[in-house]
Each structure stands twice: as structure tokens, then as C-alpha cells.
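A further point concerns the way the authors explain their paired sequence and structure data. The central task, working out the C-alpha cells from the amino acid sequence alone, is never made concrete. I therefore recommend that a typical entry be quoted early in the introduction. An entry of this sort, consisting of the sequence and the corresponding C-alpha cells, reads as follows:
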Amino acid sequence: MDVRGADWRRVNLVPVRGDAEIAAATFDRHLAAFFAKGRPAREQGWERVDIDPLHSVVRVPAIREGHADEAYLILVGAEYYDLWPPSVTFVEPLVDGTYREAPPNSQWWPRIAGSPGFAIAVHPQYRYPNGEERQLICFSHSLDYYSSNHTPAPAQRWTQGRHTVSSTLSRISDVLKPPSYQGPSGADHP
């Protein structure tokens, strides 16, 4: 019998911030490697805009038959990286060059139906255990998955040294392709 109780694993899944300088250096190295290997990705419209040492916005192309040049902006954060996955948030650009969380029913929030071979869901509004309401890109390579009290199976769990921000971005890219991707959620974007 396990004397630790049924919830002992959940305690081990509470993200704790690491050293900011190490996180920033590791994050930058991993993002740079992703873009260095990804010449075809850059040609397909991937872009990286650094906000500060712990945050970048990545333009991720979306593929939908009969529609050209759809893309989403993902704010990727490294506050807990790489012991934990990066935070990921769909954002929209503002006129002043800043970004804010993408509102539901806009061109910056995708409609997703089903999963492309791995479990993922996108929630425009999600109530976190601390009472906060904000979006959730829900899969085990997103930090918010863990802070929303989800518990992955051992094979799904983020593993430092094995997984990097490139695996997070690649999985988001996979869901922005057929058959899962259905287009922007905004009413004026069929």
C-alpha cells in the first residue's frame, strides 16, 4: 500500500520557478535552434519576435484548404523553463506594437475540432484553481496545463532535457492543420 496517498503525484506537478538567467539562456538557445533547423519553416511564414529575455511571440502558420496566409501569434514564456514547459498564449497584435490575449470569436483565436494524434484542447476562457479566468491551450507541453490541475500520464509528461520549446511549437503547429484546424473563430472569417 502506498502510504503517501492518492494525490502525492499532484504535489510533484506544481511548477516552481527556476533561475531566470538560466531559463532565459536555455529558452533563447532552444528557440534559436528551432529556427536554425527550420529554414523551410521560415519560408512557410514562421517568425520570432523577442519581447524580453523570457518571452517571444512566434507566428505559426495555419493550413486550411482553400485559404491562404492564415497564421496565429503565440506568446511563449520561459519563467519556469526548461524544468517545466513554456507558457503559451494565443495573442493579437495591438496598434502600439504590443500584444494582448486573443479574444474568443476573433481572427486571432482558432476553431479546433479534434486532436491530431495527441490530446490537446483550446479553451478561450478557463477557470483556474486560483479563481483566475483566462485562456488555456491544454496539453502537456504547455505550462498552464499543469497549473490548471491536469495530470498527464507518465508517457505524456514534459521531461526536461528531452522536450524543448520546439516540441511545444511543433504540437501547436500540428493542431493548426487539417483535419483539426477549422479556421479563425471570428464570425467574419468563414
